[in-house]
Amino acid sequence: MTWEMIIVWSVVIAAAVIIEIETFTLVSAWFAGGAIIPLVLAMINTWSDASIGWMIQVIVFVIVSLGLLLGVRPLPFVKKILKMATVPTNADAHFGKEFKLLSDVKGGRSTVSINDVVWTVQVDCECKAGEPVILKGISGNKYIAECVKAEKVEKPAEVKKPAVQKTPVKRVTKKGGK
Fold it and tell me: Which domain covers residue 11, as residue numbers?
């Protein structure tokens, strides 16, 4: 069992790379990386007097693959333990920001320009071109947005004057006839 393990690890690497190219999930790439060390161990075992059995190669494969996977894509409970912050880096970096519509809303959709790229937005109200919207989420290839309506300016409450008691006014007449 010398050349067989070289072939096994080569097939594992090739299969993981092909799966990664087809799916773009960044999961099988770590298994390709994890198979490189056992492949080297199998080569050492074949071309030298070393005695590195297939069980040790499999253990190394599992440890290296899991190490690569968890190092790049930590599990949710690991994120909580390490209190890792999620940094918005892609479309989610624009959530909560205000953008102006490029066109009138028709059928609940319009467009906005984000970093010189025109995006379709699904809008919850009828707005005209140039009016601001706030991006709230994303669905497929379009942003979900809310119209920013001009806030209603409330009139200040009328200040009530203190109640004045009405007292009858006496007419004062001048003496002397008038």
Answer: 3-82
Residue 171 covered by a domain: no
Question: Which tokens in the block code for residue 100?
Answer: 């102006």
74 contacts 84 by C-beta, under 8 angstroms: yes
What is the number of domains present in the chain?
2
Give a yes or no: residue 20 inside a domain.
Answer: yes
What pLDDT does 75 receive? Answer: 64
Q: Cα–Cα distance between 93 and 88 in angstroms, integer? A: 5
Q: Are residues 103 and 72 in the same domain?
A: no
How would you classify the pairing of strands 109-114 and 132-139? unpaired
Query: Is 66 in the same domain as 128?
Result: no
Partners of 25 in beta bridges:
none
pLDDT tens, position by position, 90-140: 777 778 888 888 988 888 889 988 888 888 899 888 888 888 998 888 887
Q: What is the pLDDT of residues 56-66, one digit of tens each?
A: 999 999 999 98
Under 8 Å between Cβ of 69 and 27? yes
* Cβ-proximal residues to 73 (8 Å cutoff; 6+ apart), any chain: 26, 27
Tell me the whole-structure pTM to 2 decimals: 0.45
Residue 126 lies in a domain: yes
Q: Is residue 159 part of a domain?
A: no
Are 57 and 12 a contacting pair, CB within 8 Å?
Answer: no
